[in-house]
Known about the structure:
- The complex is a heterodimer.
- By secondary structure, chain A is mostly beta strands.
- Chain A has strands spanning about 5, 10-15, 20, 25, 30-40, 45-50, 55-60, 65-70, 75-80, 85-95, 105, 110-114.
- In chain A, about 0% of the residues lie in helices and about 50% in strands.
- In chain A, strands 2, 5, 6, 10, 11 and 12 form a 6-stranded mixed beta sheet that branches. A 4-stranded antiparallel beta sheet of chain A has the order 3-9-8-7, with no helix packed on it. In chain A, strands 1-4 form a two-stranded antiparallel sheet.
- In chain A, about 35% of the residues are buried.
- In chain B, about 0% of the residues lie in helices and about 50% in strands.
- In chain B, strands 2, 4, 5, 6, 9, 10 and 11 form a 7-stranded mixed beta sheet that branches. Chain B has a 4-stranded antiparallel beta sheet with strand order 1-3-8-7, with no helix packed on it.
- In chain B, a hairpin with a 5-residue loop joins β5 and β6 (about 55-60).
- Chain B is globular and about 40 Å long.
- The termini of chain B are far apart.
- The interface of A and B includes residues 44, 46, 102, 106 and 107 of A.
Amino acid sequence: AQSxxxxxxxxxxxxxxxxxxxxNYSYGGTVNLFWYVQYPGQHLQLLLKYFSxxxxxxxIKGFEAEFIKSKFSFNxxxxxxxxxxTAEYFCAVSQYSSASKIIFGSGTRLSIRP
Amino acid sequence: xxxxSQHPSRVICKSGTSVKIECRSLDFQATTMxxxxxxxxxxxxxxxTSNEGSKATYEQGVEKDKFLxxxxxxxxxxxxxxxxxxxxxxxxICSARPRGSGANVLTxxxxxxLTVL
Lengths: 114, 117
């Protein structure tokens, strides 16, 4: 069974700082990878996804993630964070199938100091 | 875009009673819906996969007689927490995959917060 690890529980940054959130998964087969964001009081939204092709994926709001197959990683990055990026970020994985369930990591809370 | 609605958003019930939570896809049909449970400051735990017209598939450790799932139509799945106890208090979130979608992308509802007294 697949699983997802997010090693950073809570990250605190100042505005304009660069961000990298770690995500590692365990599954031997081909995977779909996701980053979801949950802003305070709101529901989960898809930030970006990787299905195949270019391992560097660009999402909304300036976020990007890189799939490194050899490291089983899918880290999320943003060169310059804003206060509005304060949220909970979840990495998720599913088997490469349109019918597969999606498993979530434990989440990383990002707090941005104005 | 695809929208998933959950109702009620908040519910408080007495211990021993049953509570039903509805999950509707508003502008698309969904052959598959997923039910998750989120504990405070923790991740989403997949409870079950709900398939239209067939029995739900439950994850290991989730009691199917405790958490009844019905997916009677392509736009509605319900989760009934039977004989609720305080430890069932949690945030329940449903998600749906549009019918015919070749991509494994889910749309999430806003969640339902259950408090059992």
